[in-house]
Amino acid sequence: MKALIVDDSSTMRRIEKNILKQIGFEEFVEAISGRDALKRFTQDRFDLILMDINMPEMNGIEALESIRRTDNETPIVMVTSDSDKATVIRAIKAGANQYIVKPFKEDIFKKKVVPLLPKEDEDA
Known about the structure:
Order of helices and strands: EHEHEHEHEH
CATH superfamily: Response regulator
Mean pLDDT: 94
Distance between the termini: 18 Å
CATH topology: Rossmann fold
């Protein structure tokens, strides 16, 4: 499986990548802004997108809205320190499949991400 990890913090990208490896991801593409994420999204296909909200150039909700104009299938999880109720509602209305507030515990991250992933026996 392949994930797009979007966060302006290299530390957060590394933490998220390490957890995703534990649940079966093998390929990763990283982006440092919403604009960078859109560029990478148009160049490849992903099984999951993890998106921060507060980033330079273009925030995560704007990037989410742009992605959802052409793709309603790829699971997108907002992973952000912004726990404001209005922001959460805006992200969900824009098409986020899940919302994880930083800092998070590994088990919470997995609990929210794993159900969004394709099942291995789906094609059997």
